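Hello,

I think I submitted the zinc ion job twice by accident. Can you confirm which output corresponds to this input? Input:
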Amino acid sequence: MKLMLAPNTVTGQHWVNLLAVAGIHCELHNRYLNGALGEIPAEQCAPELWLVDERDEAIARKVIEAAVHGPPAGSPLWRCAHCGEMLEAQFTVCWQCGTARDPLDD
Ligand SMILES: [Zn+2]
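Support: Only one job matched these inputs. Its output is below.
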């Protein structure tokens, strides 16, 4: 299923990588790769992020939301209070069990 549009291919690929780390399989589709590229404005070439399994949608959106608005890469890991999973700082929700990060837990 189509998840969302990425602003550009680089960002889209970054999101694919983040989702892969979270165990979510998705693909980057670009309708314009075959043929018309070069004849249309770049902003119309925005790639589409497609989920392989639509059951991953809620978590996938959280992962990308966190990537867009979260702290920069390199921040310390945090441990999920519910399942003990170690998570990167850009995740605000545990991808394993869906528990939100406790803001007091640093
Ligand atoms: Zn958890």
